[in-house]
Amino acid sequence: MGLQGLGLLTMSASLVSLTDCKNNTSCSSSTLQVVFFFSSLYLVAIAQGGHKPCVQAFGADQFDRHDPEEFKSKSSFFNWWYFGVYGGTAVSLSFLNYIQDNLNWVLGFGIPLISMAIALIIFLLGVKSYRYSFTDDKTSPLVRIGKVFVVAARNRRVSTPAFEEENGCQKTLNRVGSHQYRFLDKALIPTAGDSGSDQNVCSITQVEEAKVVLRLVPIWITCLMYAVVFAQSSTFFTKQGSTMDRSIGPNFKIPAASLQTLISLSIVLFIPIYDRVLVPIGRVVTGKPSGITMLQRTGCGMFISVLSMVVAAIIEKKRLQTAIDFGLIDMPKATIPMSVWWLAPQYILFGLSDVFTMVGLQEFFYDQVPDGLRSIGLSLYLSIFGIGHFLSGFLISTIENLTGGNGQDSWFSDNLNRAHLDYYYWLLAGFGIIELAAYLYCSKSYLYNTGASK
């Protein structure tokens, strides 16, 4: 489907290039071409939704968790997976942006199409050598877990102590494991009229699976603000860069969007250091295969993301002051005499935070879900960033309405020299601190899934 979407995007760009253009200065697209283009984009998005969580889970499934050496390699897999993803992103942002801006969009879409076709061929060549994970239980994991909540809800009025006394199953209920979410233990109680039929009573394993999934919810919620911060690198950071001096030499300017390459490069450079230097040191200190726990790794990245917002706010304040000093505050299209490389620290900090948080969350949501729900777990991880982007848009709209009334310039004024992105970055830093505190509280009480790599 992804290959089809890229093919249609290339075709849509070809159709636009064939439209009537006057003196090569102005071209128009028909409504049909616009619909065709956006349909192609949605097809690519749907393909990504199916591809991303499944291919990561499939890749991690190639490692045997019961083999000590492969168990260590599985932790490194997520590091090198992310390394490959952002290595490709660095190439894309460096070269494809230039091709699309300066040559043509047909070639800009055609190169990814050819690359995807080659990748698909390589993937298919290895089909016979892949490991496939199967379970004896043919019931859908979602059905098993959903049944626990349904039966527990039916038995919500049943007194667990009374049931224990009548059936002598105190020991059985205690085997459920933890003191958390004890209301789910009622799924072990036969509902009225069931006569103890096992078909209508959940097993201890099912209850344990439901508890494991429910434990993920607080972690998922406390990571949403990180995703809001994550959305800024491709939006306001780029807008800041477009107003600054992007010259390299007398005849070349860096495209503002290409500054995101700094994130990719910092990830590509730091992941080998993390995997080959920091993790072995961590293993010696903590005795854990991954050096530090997945939640500790994620928390480190959250802290760095707060630092990135603080740095971004300070740099934006300097950019605004430079615009004032040179009398450019009411000249939004003028280039502010301040090098775009002032933005490099916030981009690099973003990359470092991704190495910790993004990779940590990938491994966490893969490792902590029950067998058979690996791709669902990674879908939960991806949903953090999908919902985070929506929350970012909602937050921006709300602030826009609150600060832009009565003819005043809002924090996000079209004239960026009269806007106050620095205030917005300070606000995100404050939210990030609150989020980090909530995350530390939730992670402290989190009980890892039995047998997981902590």
Automatic annotation (TrEMBL):
Question: Carries keyword Transmembrane?
Answer: yes
What name is this protein filed under?
A: Uncharacterized protein
PANTHER family in alphabetical order: OLIGOPEPTIDE TRANSPORTER-RELATED
Q: Where are the transmembrane segments?
A: 80-99, 105-127, 212-232, 252-274, 295-315, 347-366, 378-399, 423-442
Signal peptide limits: 1-21
Write the record's keywords in alphabetical order, separated by commas: Membrane, Signal, Transmembrane, Transmembrane helix
The UniProt entry's sequence similarity note says: Belongs to the major facilitator superfamily. Proton-dependent oligopeptide transporter (POT/PTR) (TC 2.A.17) family.
Organism per entry = Papaver nudicaule
Q: Which GO terms describe its cellular component?
A: membrane
Superkingdom is Eukaryota
Q: Where in or outside the cell?
A: Membrane
Q: Name one Pfam family in it.
A: PTR2
Topology versus the membrane: Multi-pass membrane protein
Query: Does the record carry Transmembrane helix as a key word?
Result: yes
What GO molecular functions are on record for this protein?
Answer: transmembrane transporter activity
